[in-house]
Design brief:
Distance between the termini: 46 Å
Strand order of the largest sheet: 1-3-2-4-5-6
Shape: globular
Structural class: alpha/beta
CATH architecture of the largest domain: 3-Layer(aba) Sandwich
Radius of gyration: 20 Å
Mean pLDDT: 93
CATH topology of the largest domain: Rossmann fold
Largest sheet: 6 strands, mixed
Helix content: 25-40%
Order of helices and strands: HEEHEHEHEEHEHEHEHEHEHHHEEEE
């Protein structure tokens, strides 16, 4: 199916394996940003869902029923996500939604799932997705607030208190900017600059030149996702800025390293453990999970893993586990089972959800990484 067709028709994955062809499939709906500015998030998400749906079906499915993945590509356009979300609910009649690559796409679908009483596990980052708590909405990535806190925590340890903020005008970037402003004081951080850029901008030198001219700035914190932060990183080095450079978890992938190249050297960011499985302690409970995911993904797709694919893994596995616990696809029972998740070890951390927490991760599940020699390493 070509890229244009995939944007308007659903893709399906239904590997029956040893399952009976008469078994009614469990429909997993997904709207992902497979193309557009957020493609390097959405592409590994789709590949992950496809890979594990096939694997689960080969092993007998869930409750003796095959999984069927029905997906649409929103092209990184929130308006399209709303349209496709409606199609998944009304026409495809999916049993659960796992997707929403970006905050904008996710939030455009939230009213739909709340009205339809359909469990929805988002793969996007902003805290607004789960705060205030929405009955039918959950998520797997750490929030932007958590990212800001982890970064400010590291800055404080290094004696960096006057920070220049550069954020993207996307839903994720706007929320990240808001949350950074809200928690800065808690860590003794003063924001001495507040610049923004658009998700499709191709040169952020003007904003960075302003920041370079601020004598009191001690570090720069960039809040964005997709290709933008890599452009920022290259512009940063081209301008000869020598201040420590931090990014959010919106760029935690090998693709960022490829796009930014040698300019990424020394960059720090908070990330799930997925990027550093070989560097985790032998007794780390996440080590076998992230190592197995990395091995499977590389064997199937011959490319590096990303935390974004890991978010999709966590979302699918949380959905599958909830369906098993619910004994079927009754929406209320599945929703309740997701909310009751305790001790589930995923690629993002150990999930402990509750009626007041539809993420279930704490700050300790974030690892602070630094780029050294073109590779991700644990920051010292």
């Amino acid at each position: 199916m070509n890229k244009t067709m995939r944007s308007f028709f659903s893709g399906t994955v239904l590997a029956l394996g040893a399952l009976s062809a008469n078994a009614e499939p469990i429909k997993i709906g997904s709207v992902l940003s497979i193309t557009g500015p957020a493609a390097f998030l959405g592409d590994p998400e789709l590949k992950t869902l496809q890979m594990y749906v096939e694997d689960i079906n080969k092993k007998g499915g869930v409750l003796g029923r095959p999984l069927q993945l029905v997906y649409y590509d929103d092209g990184s356009d929130a308006a399209k996500a709303n349209s496709f979300g409606k199609r998944l609910i009304e026409d495809d009649k999916v049993d659960i939604l796992v997707g929403g690559t970006t905050t904008g796409s996710t939030m455009s679908m939230v009213p739909l799932v709340e009205k339809a009483n359909l469990p929805f596990i988002s793969l996007a980052g902003a805290v607004v997705i789960i705060e205030p708590v929405k009955k039918w909405v959950f998520k797997t990535p750490h929030t932007d607030r958590m990212a800001a806190e982890k970064v400010f925590e590291d800055m404080k340890k290094r004696g960096l208190t006057n920070i220049a903020l550069l954020s993207e005008t996307s839903g994720f970037g706007q929320s990240g900017r808001k949350e950074s402003e809200a928690v800065a004081g808690k860590y003794g951080i003063t924001l001495v600059a507040d610049e923004t850029y658009g998700p499709k901008d191709t040169d952020m030198s003007p904003q960075l030149s302003k920041i370079k001219g601020i004598a009191s700035a001690q570090a720069v914190f960039v809040f964005g996702l997709g290709q933008g932060p890599a452009i920022v990183t290259r512009n940063y080095r081209q301008l000869g800025i020598t201040l420590p450079l931090y990014h959010s978890h919106g760029v935690a992938s090998g693709e960022y390293l490829k796009l930014a190249g040698s300019a990424a050297e020394g960059v720090r960011l908070p990330s799930p453990a997925q990027l550093i499985p070989e560097k985790l302690a032998a007794n780390d409970p996440q080590k076998p999970v992230v190592a197995a995911y990395e091995k499977s993904f590389k064997e199937v797709y011959k490319q590096d893993v990303s935390t974004f694919g890991g978010y999709a893994y966590d979302g699918l596995m949380l959905a599958v586990e909830a369906i098993r616990k619910a004994g079927g696809t009754d929406r209320v029972k599945v929703r309740d089972a997701i909310e009751a998740t305790r001790g589930f070890v995923g690629t993002s951390g150990t999930f402990n959800m509750s009626a007041t927490d539809h993420l279930g991760l704490d700050l300790s599940s974030f690892r602070m990484l630094e780029v050294k020699g073109g590779e991700w390493t644990l920051a010292q």
